[in-house]
Amino acid sequence: ESIFSGHAVRAMGWRRSGGGEAPVVYPVGMFMLMLAFIVLLTRSLRLPAIPPALLVGVIAGAAELDKKMMLESSVIAALIELGVVLLLFFAGLSTDYTSLAHHYTISFWFALMQIVARTAVLAAIAAGSGLSKTTEAVIFFGLTCSFSSTIMTFQNLQMRGEMRTLHGKILRGSCVFKELISSFIIALIFAFFQARTTFHSTASVRGLRRSDSNVTSAENVVNGSHYSDKLGVEIGKAIGIYVLVCLILYAIQRFVLERVFKFFAKDSELLFIGVMAYDLGVGALGFLAGFSPMTCSFLAGLSAAFLKQRVRIDNKVSSLKDFGMITFYFMLGIYVQLDASSFGRLVPWSIIICFIVTIVLPVLFWVFGVMMGLKGRTTFMICNTFNSMGETSLIMQNLAYHADIFDRDQYIVLLLSSLFSMVLGWILQMYQVEIYNRVQFLLVALEDISVSEAERETKFSYKDHIVLLGFNESGLEIANHFLAKKRDVLMLDLDPSLHRTMLTSFCGVDESSHGDGETRTQDRIGSNIFPVYADPESELAWRRYRLRSASLVVCCTIDRDPKPLCEFMRASKAILMVVTNSNEEAKVLYDLGVSYAIQQEYLAALEVGIMLKDEYTADSQAESLFAKRRTVHLEELKEEHDSYVRRRIGEFI
Known about the structure:
Blueprint: H1 7-12, H2 25-42, H3 50-62, H4 65-68, H5 73-93, H6 104-129, H7 135-143, H8 150-160, H9 166-209, H10 217-255, H11 257-264, H12 268-288, H13 293-304, H14 310-335, H15 340-372, H16 376-385, H17 391-402, H18 408-430, H19 432-439, H20 444-447, H21 451-457, E1 466-469, H22 473-484, E2 489-493, H23 496-505, E3 529-533, H24 539-544, E4 552-555, H25 563-569, E5 575-580, H26 583-591, E6 596-599, H27 600-615, H28 627-642, H29 644-652
Parallel strand pairs: 1-2, 1-4, 2-3, 4-5, 5-6
């Protein structure tokens, strides 16, 4: 009885008949029911739960349901902060550093180009429209619009089976660089918050000593100078601590973290405690040092991304990421407290910014694709995926609002722009193949080849030739088969790094396939793969390189729609083989008229059966089993490691 009386009841947040506070469960539970209903309605669009969560929050805040249900503003702020910390930790943990293996240069420049271009354009709009009235507000207005959603990018790539495509690898690499840059910007925003807090605190103390009527304009100038000095000190401090935290976490990851998480990974409860202690503990220590706890959480997650237990952490504790994400978006929508007058006055600007971010800038970025030497399909897919503002932008917008960099009008414009762009951007991503087929004629300049490349391609004979569309293990084995028969193989692929590697390794074993044999090099280990930098899914490329005149065409692009290629090759006598990893896809391919479906896992299983049959004979001895195969395999691995060309090709595979 004493437990549920007086202060104990109010501390627990339970509502009594005589007044007191409402429980968190009641308002949050009602809001979650609303969210579940809206998600059911939006599921037909395959829309992620992120925009509905933000929308429900905005509606609840506009209707002041949080006040009617007595949800305290301090609780909302606390849940937002917890959501941000969890979201950033798991963003760091899910960093796909392996995607930088071959495309780090292109990934970096695409990330930097998007940030710089968006910042410049949207900062100019903020300044010209009068939305932002200070220099810092103009700059951060552009910066906080410059980061697309990493979560939605990965969901889109996984849904479409494009994680291993060229544009998928570049997108994943760009996300790594953007997350790193955003963590630094968050640290700078926190420096603004610290400077303003300290300055206002000092000003309050001075105000107590004398009345405001005695403050002169000269003293106001001095106060402004003091604030600028304090801001400079805080920014310098943030940069120094950022570097220091990176060094400390690197040392911890290098020498301590693996051993610690080896202990915590013994069971789920320990793992939960270890993850939360590392995430929140590093953030708390950063806050004590006067540094951004959000940046510390991201860097902590980034250091944990190199752990052997990373997959186990992701599988066992990933629900924390979903909780943090939904909580953040949901409470953020409530926190803005949107009213009808503000909505009607500011929504036109939100629509304009959404249109620029989602449609105008991606089209302008096509020019950058030309400069980087990418083909039309790759450039379009990258630009069409980076076509929204995401969780990182929303986090920075919220922090900038708290730091008094933005006023309420700017914050509402940016939040609504983010919501609109996520919805419209996702719809455009769902239909990006259909959109690309309609705008492909605009990208024809990206499909042009240089004069020297065109001259080189004329040396190959495009009759009864062997063609690889894309490249993987099966394509390499097919090329090796024809290497023994002194036949060169034509390969179409969009990866510029792979193209350069194949170009330097081609030695031309078949003189009849490339004319006078000037490119033959018999005194070095080389490849019989004649590389062509072209889109293996483009009908223009199929016609240019005369696939209908080939003797064998092998499609190595997995998880792509094979129907257009099958229809194109239907009138040809060429053998058409398509690589797949699915029984259902194999059946579909045979119905489309494919000569043979190379089902890699099925063939690997058959090979294992043949190998076992050869090894386990009546007179086989246990010590001799697999000895010869093991020796041959080790020799092949050593040859691949010792040969630069084979090692590079192996890395791409």
